[in-house]
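General statements about sequence and structure are easier to judge against a single worked case. In the encoding step, the backbone of a single protein was reduced to a row of integers, each denoting a local shape. The record that follows shows the chain in one-letter code together with its fold in token form.
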Amino acid sequence: MKRNNSILFAITALIAMIAMAGSASADPAGGQVNSTAAEGQIVTLYLDVNPSDYVTTRVRDGGSGNIDYYYFSSLAPLLNRNGFSMNPPNNYYNATIEMRCTGYERDIDGNIGSAYTNTLKNTTPTTAHIVNACYDGTQDVATLMELEQCPTATHPDLVVSNIYPQYIFSDLTNVLSVNVTNQGNASAVSCKVSLTITHTGGPTVLTGTVPALGAGSSAVVEVGNWKPTVLENISMTAFADCDNDEPTEWDEGNNNLTEYRTTTGDCAVDDMLPDTCYGYRGDNPMTTVYEGTGGVIYSVGDYKYKNNTVNFNIGPSGDENQADGSTADVPDGATVKNATLYVYYCWRKSVTGPNPGADPRPDFEMSINGNQLTTNEYYTDIKGFAGSEYQYGTLVYDVTAYVTGDGTYQAVRSNYTYGKGYVSGMALLIIYDDGSGDTYRIAHGYDRLATFYKTQYKVLPEDATTTATLTDVDPNQIATANLFTVTVDAVPPGSESEQFNLRPWEVGAWDCVAGVPSCGYNYPLGINRGAVDKSDITASGTDEVVKFQERTNNGFGALFACLQAKGGAPEVVVDAPDTCVSGTFTVDIDVETNGNEIYAVQYDLSFDPDVIRILDQHQGTFLSENGTVDTMVVINEFDNVAGTASYSETRRDTLTGTSTPGPLASITFTTVGDPLDCSNITLSGVVVSDAGAQEISAVIENDSVCICEPNIGPTAVAKSDHKYNNVGSVFTCEATLNGSESYDPDGVIVQWSWACGDGGYESGEIAQHIYNTYQWNGSTYTPFTATLTVTDDDSATDDDDCEVIVYIAGDANGDGTVNILDAAMIGLRWMKTCNDYPGVCWGAEEMADRADLNNDCEVNILDAVIVGTQWGNNA
């Protein structure tokens, strides 16, 4: 190394102390840095033959007024590691000294230490020559090191700030996540985050992927699901390190977080809890409360959130029956079996007075049409843990004594106390007996469902599922079925889901009732109604189950379920034309399945052969389902002497029948009798088979036809409403062609066609036409002849003509010249209108008709303008 006699006294003293130690080694080395503020910076020295093997030291304070310095106490281990012998002595080896911005400290024995970050670096590396010798009283001193600022260091720094959820439940599947934040000043690459749960039978380790995070950003990462089976105190440790030590984080020791969940048996304070503390898990399933035969009305009236008065209108022009979309009307002759008023409420403080506790009945009073009511039943649900105080529920009132049929009914909530809840909505249920065999099964209650709320809790949808169990329906005894369910806070539709028996889940199942101004906050009741396939009904002896499930929203309440079923035999129907017949016509033999699966049908048919006769009887589309299923026609015959026909058909090569209605056969008849003769078309010998070759009793519906009287043709009556018209090509003037007085004595006119006489055509009972020309013979105008052709419903026609007088624009008096005489006519009838005179348009008032040059039924400035602009024109 170069000798420098200007080395500081302090360096010389330190080296002298090393020399006095008497050990054989390479000379120590040192140097100065051109700074008085470099204390603590790391300096690196390495042999040029092996830059990866280096040693470090720190810059020392040079003292008051002196620049700072550094020194390496012994370099013998470095030389030895690189194969440089200490003998013979005084050999020189090339080396380099640097002050780097970042790196790792390393002692003289080559042991790697901590990572460091300098704020200063040398402008160029310093070349040095290391001498291997016993200390000879000299020192190796490097030239002065010039410094500059290091660029600002950037590193990511990942920390785990939270472990979610705050509350964990045994015997429920908890969805766990970790909140990871990059608090450094550089982006972090994507990596894994782990969560280790210490528990009986554990530990359980869950992992997730942290996305790439920019400086200052964070992410909540789901790491997996955990269903603890033991209620106990647990610890959870999360660890995230996304850089795999390259580049270095600011702090490699802050990547983990440990949290604890403890249980004492108190749902109000614990954060490790039994499932029984979780009130939104589907813990209040509903069961059948009403069942029987008859019809069902479910009306929500004019309800609105927080409204304490709701009006119900039951009758032919009443509310919508939410159960099926019909009008909420008790049929004539039906009697009310049961009437129930439901009051759905929310946000009731159950822990404060007055009336603390779970029973909401004393909180307020209810009446209907002024009659005070007593609660028959109530259903409630509540969060159940961590400050649980707000209650939701359903109050049930029997109002059968006050709701006896159609009428208006007003339900009023009164004498209520602040803090004891709000009305989410009300509903009026009416069950009536109409003598039908239709059946109903109804369940009601309240079960609040939620999978998560912010970071407090999060479970899987199957842990937020409830049911409504409805008494068994025998699918063999019904034709159709309809399911109707009601919820609160499940609208507008999201991920809330419904499942009937084993049918697929219906996501976003509930929608707002029809007609409300907005869907959601002010109108929170949701309905779902629709047909249920017989195949979805369970086998006889097994109850029907409706499932309500919350998935990814903040919760809703299941309130009501109703399954209605209609029974009925299939119908075989003669479908003849509704009007009289003449010539050939078609009669279909239709089958209404009423939900039954039908495999085969046969019939005999009779008619009066002196009135009608069969030309053809051919297969319909019913059993073949429009040709998609193979069928076999067994019998197809008719006898026009006896007036009979027979037909039978069966499906084949399939094990199922069809429940889709349609025509079994079509018969083409022709008339042979006299006008007004009639014939019954009557079925007999009808046999209907199901897919098991068992006969199904069927209802028969016959029909008849009558031969039409000879058609009397229509009479056409054509008129021009305005007797005097102007050419409309300059100023708009529409001639009105009126055929409304045309008539047909034995039918109806179905078409009006106009030939306007100028080569143009119009259609319609009353038609507007603009004449773009006129007919002048030199001394007077020749009218156009418009011809009306009318056609009746038996294709008979008739014609009629009318004259349409057309003058040039501005000619009111018809003399062929636009001048003062025309203006005078306008002045004489100034501001007159068609309404001033009897009859169509101007009636018999010819001067006003002439003066109305634009046919707008008013004589005014618009007509005067036409005269002025056309002044002096001649025909």
Summary: The mean pLDDT is 91. The domain at 719-869 is CATH 2.60.40.10 (Immunoglobulin-like). The chain is about 5% helix and 40% strand.
